[in-house]
Amino acid sequence: MVAGKKMTKESILPSVCEDNGDEGGKEEDLGGIASRPVSRPRSVYSRGSVDGQRVPRSPSQHQSIRMAQQDEDYTNEEDEVDEGRGLPGDGQQQEEECAIADQDFDIDLELSRFRNEKQAYDPTGQSAYKEACKMLNVIPVSYFLRNMKQSEINMMHYGLGSQGTKALAVSLVTNISILKLNLRDNCMEGTGAAAIADMLKENCYITDIDLSENRMGEYGARALSSMLLENTTLFSLNLSGNHLDERAARHLSPALIGNQKLQHLDLSHNRFTDMAGEILGAAIAENTGMKSLNLAWNCIRGKGAIAFAEGLGGNIFLRTLDLSYNGLAKEGAVALEEALKNNNTLEDLNISNNRIPFEGAMHFALGLKVNTTLRILKMSRNPMQSAGCFAILKSVQANPESAVEFLDFTDICVDQEFKDLLNSTKETLPNLQVNHSGKKDLKCVKHSGQSIGM
After folding, report:
1. Region 206-232 average pLDDT
2. Cα torsion 186, 188, 193, 199: sign
């Protein structure tokens, strides 16, 4: 059902409505659900305020409600819905088209909730979801309706599109059951991501959300960054494969500095380059809560790699870091030498396929000589040859306080000298596991477990 802009002053997501009466300042429009500044007062129906005093409706609004009751009955919608699909072509809508559509009408997200003032509060948001689907002209997802009381929802590849995502966000504002939500690959783009971000400003139950492969770009990153400055319950966020670049990094940087609750962030398979490495490196140095960060499959190299390594050296909370498939090269490996000397918390580091040559591995090995916390090191598919592997293993052997338990040199063929060193190291470090590809002239074989001499 559609209600006029002047009739929608109170709603679960009040920022869906345009605020034309506020001359003191305008909110940024993020996909039809505006981004609320930190100082914006919460509505009476935000977190936990379900028993607040209801605002009387105008006569025209009650008339709208009575007209809606004559529409097609949605109570049996669950039997008729397409299994998770919106209207044809919904997932391919451009952000500009969505923005124009949102200007044509606003949605009263509480109409279905307050048709009957005596109706019991719905902690799942099911009625709000059906009503929002009707207003946004999308088909409700039967899987979602059936599982709204579950703690974990997996809606990968459902083709929600931006409008379907908005409808989902409406119901999630008050849902108290769902703790883990997977919305990977749903074509939500920037406007859908903005709706999810605005929902997460109100929802205080969701702790783990996967928004990967949704092409949200800078627009969605800006909305989610604003959300991270307010949300205090989100534990894990996956933004992999979302076309994020240095512009998105500029939005994420203050969020990483200001948010102390987020512990796991996945930014892999994006478009972060040298500049993004510098921006994120500075943010990582100031971050005080994150334990796991994934930046694999980006283009961080040169000055960006150096700046990020310097930021890592100043971080005292990060435990797992994946920088594989970037371009650290010799310069990045040299910078990581200092990071390993200064960092006393990192336990798991993946720098596979980073064009690290023998010289870079030698510098990196110097850092391992004094590091006492790193347990897992993955350096596979780097052109550092057997000599580089030998230098790394020699540093582990020479460090009496080394914590290294696993070394991965997959796809790097080693010579007999390396294997002799490995055998002697096994005598003092019997639990050490090493993956390597053996010796070329002895028909090298890849090992997925503990290395075996050939």
Report:
1. 97
2. negative
